[in-house]
């Protein structure tokens, strides 16, 4: 008796049946998309169509959000093209540099968020066309509605608040699943506030290279009973946007493989205790360390080590930029949701074996990034604790003082303006922990800027550094008194100079 479970190489068949996918599959297509990731898919398409402007518009009807529109001034689609566009997996050929690849994005993104998606479009020298997928209807027999061309034309001809264009595309989502379900203005406002923040952060990051080049402008707004409110533009958010490298000699480039299998890793180290928006991103630093993978300049992975090492806090400063223009055989392939790559068996070993031109390996890089992190924290721990800065110091300034120096758990030093009796620039009230600045110089120093509570951060920061230990000491010695005299004389002369 043979132990093999199958006895023949080929499988005998007796005919075939056609099994059309159940339309239910439409609904599960983009299940793991968030709203902002789904919108990124639509923006991908607009960018591929050469759009200069893309507008994301929430349409509000008082206490409800009713729909969402994404409008662009790209090259648009004519009749034949729009049917392929609405087809799940619809195939076309792609030019070099395009973000599209799978023929899924529009459908997956739309059905992950809405029960109905309408696309209207106008290409050069062609009439406007439109199609609509409605989930309940599609589920019966995959039938897609043809939108009245006159309606499509009128929609596109609307003034969208960017320069008029003869071509363009509009995608409209109705019955959006994630919108607040209760009719309440506060619920709508809260929703919009958080959606705007997420969309700005996500799209600003994903498309930062394209935005920085100025190829396209991404706009978001809300239409409320015909009025346009809250219009903002998405700013680029560069995850490598530090002002100064965290470690001398970095970034370094490690090249892996050759020819079609070549990967180029640009290994960066952020400065210790960085706090810029570009560093913090969504605040989840452990997940934002690692590989930043760009497919035709569109970020498709924002952090993660893909098995190269374990994420840990000490690697928070390590970010690696990796550019690809397609799948790399045996090494990595794109995921259809464009939110990461799958790595193949050759990925890890080839990177571990490689080195930069000066002989630095990937594991040296990780050591350096950890070292920079530890060093930065160690230095902070050995610094003398100081009195915290209080009112009058801008919040960002307070935070950055707190990051550099350990703060004592005591009353803070305030800095305030008042008219001092004579020409002195400042006065120190040790008991009240107030650093007074003479109001008579305020205007001269602040110039045309508005003199708010947190004005003149540079001068305040310098004075804080100078005087903190005067406030902190038990009592003032002769040395302290003399110092104050010197500072007073020099700063008063400087302030008078400024005032003249
Ligand atoms: N805003 C648009 N302007 C012009 N053509 C568009 C637009 N949106 C979609 N299309 C057309 O519809 C097609 C299908 O879009 P879809 O996002 O579903 O797939 P894709 O972009 O081809 O591939 P991927 O799944 O990688 O996104 C696109 O290839 C494009 O031809
Ligand atoms: Mg696409």
TrEMBL record:
Query: Which top-rank group of organisms is this from?
Result: Bacteria
Instruction: Give UniProt keywords alphabetically.
Output: ATP-binding, Nucleotide-binding
Q: Which Gene3D superfamilies match?
A: Histidine kinase-like ATPase, C-terminal domain
Q: Which GO terms describe its molecular function?
A: ATP binding
A Pfam family matched by this chain, by name?
HATPase_c_3
Q: Which InterPro entries match?
A: HATPase_C_sf (IPR036890)
Name listed for the protein in its UniProt record: ATP-binding protein
**Which source organism?**
Svornostia abyssi
